[in-house]
Design a protein that fits this description.
Elements (H helix, E strand, L loop, with lengths): L1 H18 L8 H17 L23 H5 L1 H7 L4 H24 L3 H13 L1 H9 L2 H22 L3 H17 L1 H12 L1
Length: 192
């Protein structure tokens, strides 16, 4: 089941890589600049750049979106560099979110067919594909934490251990650091 799902994801993302590009109508360009600026600041100049809401698409390239996604995606930028970095980041984040949803579906449903079908629906949901084609790394990174948070919540319901509670707190904190709206919505959903 999981192998079929990953083949489907790679097919969808291959299509995305052919359509989403640096420049044009994509939101990928400012994200690419943000990753480049963060990597350059840390590696070359040895300082952590300041995030500001005053700029977007201009120096320091770190406005509007929360810094968490760029710090989480920094290792990809250090390994690959260049314009390929945001596309590799989209691939990694999409694969992780689909895998986390698969774990959640496996925990919630008994039937393997339902697990596979629901995970495919999550993968090809139009909003996720729009975010992938638009190249919005902050949104995609934050969405990765949603199924993981609910999976951890289900584990807490089974056995309320401090380790699971701490993991849920970490996941919630990372979601807030990557995207305030997604992190806030996740917090409300977990409370309800």
């Amino acid at each position: 089941n999981l192998f079929i799902l990953f083949i489907l994801i790679i097919f969808i993302l291959w299509n995305t890589f052919n359509n989403a590009f640096i420049g044009g109508t994509s939101d990928l360009e400012p994200h690419a600049y943000s990753l480049w600026y963060l990597k350059d600041s840390l590696v070359k100049y040895h300082y952590i750049p300041q995030w500001t809401s005053d700029f977007y698409g201009g120096k320091p390239y770190l406005g509007l979106y929360q810094p968490g996604s760029f710090f989480l995606l920094l290792p990809i930028s250090l390994i690959f560099g260049g314009t390929l970095t945001p596309k590799i980041a989209i691939l990694v984040v999409s694969l992780l979110s689909t895998f986390f949803f698969y774990l959640l579906a496996k925990k919630l449903f008994k039937s393997n067919l339902v697990v596979l079908f629901s995970t495919i629906l999550f993968t090809v949901f139009p909003n996720r594909l729009a975010l992938t084609n638009g190249g919005t790394l902050a949104d995609l990174t934050a969405i990765t934490f949603i199924p993981l948070a609910f999976y951890t919540y289900e584990k807490i319901k089974e056995s309320p251990r401090l380790r699971n509670l701490a993991l849920l707190g970490l996941i919630q904190g990372l979601a807030l650091l990557t995207h305030h709206a997604v992190g806030g919505s996740l917090l409300v959903a977990l409370i309800l």
